[in-house]
């Protein structure tokens, strides 16, 4: 299959959705961020080249399943449903879904989202959790940033999205804030094709080394300043 043959050729193909700072985003023609750096460090440890391809978030798991890519690193939350389709490495980050609102919004906690218009990125856990909101009117966007733009324009009442990109988007757009109470706690991991234990084990060994050596924390600190 594709995954094995590209691995044998000395190159690992990673897919991501580079609309998710600080984990993956465009910097001129490059895709940079925590996931890009972690993937590069893992590939280095495996003695392999890394190629990163950008695509829609909801195409990532299918790309891994079909063998078009060896793995996806995309700030992807581990959940039971996805585990049916891909195998996840050990987790490398704690995360959360948070709620962004306009300053002065009447939405002050997750419970206030009932009956409101919620912006999310298609196929994300934010999308899934927003589905649980009573009478919620979910508006799906290709990019998290587009959901945030809709919020600034008053087209949605709130955005449910991961905490770190939320911090970046709120910083870039005046008049927005993140509610103190998170919606969910989650964990990120890399996903490989189901049954590709050889790659999974190599990646887990590399992740462990990166954790133990402090290299992983260094990568995080490069992109997230307290
Ligand atoms: N953590 C969320 C999820 O897994 C959002 C990830 C979005 N990642 C991205 N690269 N756009 O659904």
From TrEMBL:
Positions of the Solute-binding protein family 3/N-terminal domain: 11-226
Record has Signal as a keyword: yes
Keywords annotated in UniProt: Signal
Source organism, top-level taxon: Bacteria
Keyword tRNA-binding in annotation: no
Name of the protein in its database record: Amino acid ABC transporter substrate-binding protein (PAAT family)
